[in-house]
Every structure is written in C-alpha cells, then in structure tokens.
Write a structure and sequence with these properties.
592 residues; eight-stranded mixed β-sheet; alpha/beta; Luciferase, domain 3; Rossmann fold; GMP Synthetase, Chain A, domain 3
C-alpha cells in the first residue's frame, strides 16, 4: 500500500468518525449540517449547474432547491412537523428526492419503503415507522390499495399518489396539491440537527420482518462524505449514474449523499436494466456509478459489443463484488478504479478497499474484530474466562464493531430489535459490540474478505432474505402445514438461492402454491427450489433443522423427496431430475 493510499484511507476514516461535511469554505461539524442545508448551499454556489438527470429531464441546482421547497411547503400545509414520519413508496425519480429533502427541511423523517415488499410485509414496514402519511408512486398504488384497510394511524387524507395515470385514484393527487405551493422558504426556519433522524432504511437483520434502521442526519452526512469525497472523489464536473433503488443505503449514501457533498450531478434510472445500462451511461456522460456485485454479473452476462469500453467511467463503488468476476469485469469494460466497501446500513464498522485487490472488502481497523463463533449458527464461542477469542490469519469468524462515541450504533425504531444486535462483555466486562451477522475471513496484513451471512438470513440478488419471514408467508398457503426456508449455493451466482422444504396435507396443489408464491413474495424472496416432505426434521429443541438441509441442497442423487425448481419463464415449478441437476451444476441452466 503506497503512502498516498495510506493517507487517503486515514482521511476516509476521519470523515466517518469525526462526522465532517464540506461546504464552500471548508469543513464544518456535521451537527450544523444536513442534506437539505447542503442542497441550499449547492443552489447558492452553482444555481445553473446540472444537479439531476432523469430520462430526458434536466434539473439545475436552483431547480432542485425550488422543487424541494415546494414539497416542504406542501407537507407543512398538511400539518407535517418536526419528528413526524411519512412513508415513501416510489421508484427512482426526481420527485423521490424532492419529497425526501422536503421532509428533511421540516425536520420530518422519510421511511424509505422497499418497493418489492407486498401484503403483510408492507403493512409492517409502514406501521413500524409510525408513519402519519404516505407518498406513493402510481406504479405502486395498487399494492397499497390492497393493504390500506389494515394500516393503523394513517388517515386516507394523508395518502398521496404521484405520477402519470393516477387520475382515477381514490387517494389524493400529490401534483394537484403541489401546484398551489410556492418554491421559496424562509431561511430563518429551523433545520434538523445532527442527532435528529433523517430517514429510516429497512434491513432484514438476522431474523423476522424488516427492521427500520434509524439514519440520523449526522450518520447520513458522514457516510455521504466518505463516498463522495473519499471513495469516489467526485468533483462538480462529475456525473454519477444511479440505477440502484434510492431506498437502499447504496443509493442513499453513495448516490444522493455523494452528489450533495461534492456538487456532482446525479443521473437516475427508474429501475436497473442490464440491456440499457451502458446506453444510459453514454447518454448521461456519466463518470462514476454505484453497484452491488450481482449488478456487475448481470452486465457481464450481456452479449459483448464493440461499445463495451466506449464510456467515460473512471471509478465505481459498491459491495458484494465476487473475486471470480472482478478482473473479468475490469478487463472487458476497462474500469480503472473499483472502490469495494463493506458495511451494514445500521452498522458501525465500515471497511474500504482502495487498492483494487480482487475479493477484498478492506482492512481490519481499530475497534473492529473477527471473533470465534459457530460458523453454522453465528453463535459466539466464549472461553473459560467468559470472553471471546479473535480468529487468526486464514480463519473465519463473526465480524463485530465496538460501540463507542466515535462509532455509535443508532439502532432501529424497534428497541427490542436494537438490543438483539448488541453483544456485551466480549473482550472485557462492560464492553459493547455491534453484531454484523456476517462471517468474514482474515488474511495477511489485516486484509478481509466476506465469507457468508449467518443465522436465519441469506443474501440473494443484493437483498438480505429473512428465512423466518418467507416461511411465515409460505405457511399461509393452502395445504402447507409447515415451511422450512434456507439458502442454497448455485454455481455462478452471488449469494444463495431460496429453497423451501414443505410438509403438506392432501389439499396442497403445486399450481395453487406457485400462484401464491408469485402473488405474495417479491422475486428475491421466492423459493427457487422446493422439497416436499411428509415429515419435517427438527432439532432437540424443536427448531427446524437447516444445516443438513443446506448441505443436501437440491441433489436428487441423495434426496428421495420430490424436488422442484421455479421455471421463471413459465411461472411454474418443474421437477429436478439428475439431468437438470447436472445442468445447474455445470452452469448451463442458470437461475436469474
């Protein structure tokens, strides 16, 4: 590692831990700053400069500021005040940011709802935020209609739909209300402080339904500075392309945050498209983009073209890039700088890889430890003295981050969920650590690589999947007596694909079950493999057995139970025989 890179890495850490944020005159403590104030500064410094690009629309920093004010005034007229929360359910578009920052301007909180969740998962996500209202894109209006009767505490007069095609909506039109509001606000009005929450970002955690991670203004600003100034090193002339959803921390921190902290323009796409990705990059003249590992795999799976290297991208940042495709991606698309990082949305122990070393997530830093644990369950292993031991080079363990004033854990909206993520008395009596729920391997010179998720969560298509949540949904299907859900390895794919072992009665119908899965679960949560059993294996404490099931996977050579795979083209489950199994293992048959 060069001296320059060492210095740069140190400064990135300083950005994160001292929580600094930029403005025109240098750096100020982030307690005086927040996202909406940064926007006001950008509009003041560079009013005509490009701020947002979306489809064929262009917004200057002055436009961005004016529209944010309009939304803030609209919310204020609805009675929204500091500390209130509103659910935001919308695909990527400029109005998503206007609404988010408009709420921030009032000191209110946006609950950034994952647009994939449906049914009871959607009800839970909205209710756990204590939202008093909802802004929904017209593309998600129908799913909200399906659960609105179950929402507690949200009057229909506080549900607003936005987007073309909403003329017949039974909810209020946001556009109609917005048109009557001014695009200016008094600068003397109070802005939220660093310790005030800015938004909720949802995470599966290790068990149960989604949890609303509290993102304070200071945390958002620290992460935004780390990405914008450190990892991406953006300048006002840069354009960062974001096709990942804004409800995820990558889009919120490395996308919006990096733009506001540096003055770089933000180019948005409604949803990621592998076939249109590079056309967008060229259309917007993007110089940077953010990723998750699966996104880059999708790009590699596209047929090569003569324009693969016809772009202006100089740097990308993201997480989950597997070593098996890292160098292939760099070579094919001529990407000079990959800034791989690691860090949970709510976590306190980020790492960064600034050296383009394939497969590494960064180096172990002060306050971070990898401790011995049961690699199947994630349970920490304590010695005779009651304390844990750290792993040695070449070993894998549970990644934890010490909780302190400079590395806080702000927790979730649910205090009980917060307590479950805190490990106590690990190294000495009285210490407290954040449990990442991740297995990490320690290499030479403190290098780290991601190994796997532990417990009841696995990762698929860039999303954390809670096995308990999926199992609870499947248990509601006709004929299902009990469902055991777990993740299984699939050759050539990042993470684990979902598999469900089902115990069922005579009323069970595979075709009815398939329709239930498609209607009630988003794509990343659907079990791609099924195993039908007459009797479910349980542990001595009456818990579902997962370890052996994961090892057995979907191999018909060792499993006599009926096995099925979800055919995504036909939306039906088809039997897995030895020929199909061999095709999956060889990579000929691919799961998308």
């Amino acid at each position: 590692m060069s001296l320059f890179e060492k210095i740069k890495t140190s400064w990135i850490q300083i950005f994160f831990y001292l929580r600094l944020a930029p403005n025109a005159s240098g750096f100020l403590p982030s307690g005086k700053w927040n996202a909406s104030r940064l926007l006001a500064e950008r509009a003041k410094e560079n009013p005509s400069g490009t701020a947002l690009l979306f489809e064929d629309d262009r917004f200057s920093w002055s436009d961005f500021e004016s529209e944010t004010n309009r939304w803030a005034n609209f919310f204020e007229s609805c009675g929204v005040k500091k500390g209130d929360a509103l659910a935001l359910l919308m695909d990527n578009r400029p109005e998503y940011l206007f609404a988010l920052l408009g709420l921030n301007r009032l000191g209110a909180v946006a609950a950034l709802i994952n647009t994939n969740i449906v049914g009871q998962g959607l009800v839970h996500a909205i209710e756990i935020s204590n939202a008093s209202g909802c802004i929904v894109g017209v593309e998600h209006e129908e799913k909200l209609h399906g659960v609105v009767a179950e929402l507690q505490g949200i009057p229909r007069s506080m549900i607003f739909v936005h987007g073309q095609g909403a003329e017949a909506s039974t909810f209020e039109r946001a556009e109609t209300r917005l048109s009557s509001h001014k695009t200016a606000r008094s600068v003397s009005q109070e802005l939220p402080k660093g310790d005030d929450p800015m938004c909720f970002i949802y995470t599966s955690g290790t068990t149960g339904l989604p949890k609303a991670a509290i993102i304070k203004n200071s945390r958002w600003l620290a992460a935004a500075s780390m990405f914008g100034l450190g990892l991406l090193n953006l300048k006002p002339a840069d354009i960062s392309y974001v096709s990942l959803p804004l409800y995820h921390s990558n889009g919120m921190f490395a996308g919006l945050g990096a733009s506001l902290t540096t003055g770089a323009a933000l180019a948005l796409r409604r949803k990621f498209s592998a076939s249109n990705f590079w056309n967008d990059v060229r259309k917007f003249d993007a110089t940077a983009f953010i990723y998750i590992g699966e996104l880059l795999r999708y790009l590699l799976n596209q047929p090569p073209t003569a324009e693969d290297q016809a772009h202006k991208i100089r740097v990308i940042t993201g997480n989950g890039l597997r070593p098996d495709i890292w160098e292939t991606f760099v070579s094919r698309f001529n990407i000079q700088e990959i800034r791989e990082f690691y860090g949970a949305t709510e976590g306190n122990a980020p790492t960064v890889n600034l050296e383009n070393r394939a497969g590494m997530i960064g180096r172990l830093r002060a306050g971070q430890s990898i401790v011995r644990c049961d690699l199947e369950t994630g349970e920490i292993i304590r010695g005779e003295d009651g304390f844990v031991e750290k792993v040695e080079q070449g070993q894998t363990g549970l990644f934890v981050g010490q909780i302190s004033k400079t590395a806080p854990f702000d927790g979730y909206a649910d205090e009980a969920a917060t307590d479950k993520k805190v490990l106590k008395d690990l190294m000495k009596t009285g210490d407290r650590f954040f449990n990442s729920g991740d297995l990490v391997t320690l290499h030479e010179n403190a290098w780290l690589s991601f190994a796997d998720r532990v417990g009841d969560t696995f990762r698929w298509k860039g999303e954390n999947v809670s096995t308990n949540e999926v199992a609870e949904t499947l248990n509601g299907a006709r004929g299902v007596l009990e469902a055991n859900v777990y993740g299984v390895m699939v050759p050539g794919a990042d993470g684990r694909a979902g598999m469900a072992s089902l115990n069922h009665d005579e009323t069970f119908s595979l075709s009815d079950f398939t329709k239930f899965v498609i209607d009630n679960l988003p794509g990343y949560q659907r079990p791609y493999f099924l195993r039908l059993q007459q009797e479910m294996r349980i542990t001595g404490t009456f818990k579902h057995q997962k370890v052996d099931y994961r090892k057995e996977g979907y191999d018909p050579k060792i499993i006599s139970d009926p096995l099925y795979i979800l055919d995504q083209d036909q939306d039906q489950y088809r039997p897995v025989d030895e020929a199909l199994f061999d095709s999956i293992k060889s990579g000929e048959y691919q799961i998308r």
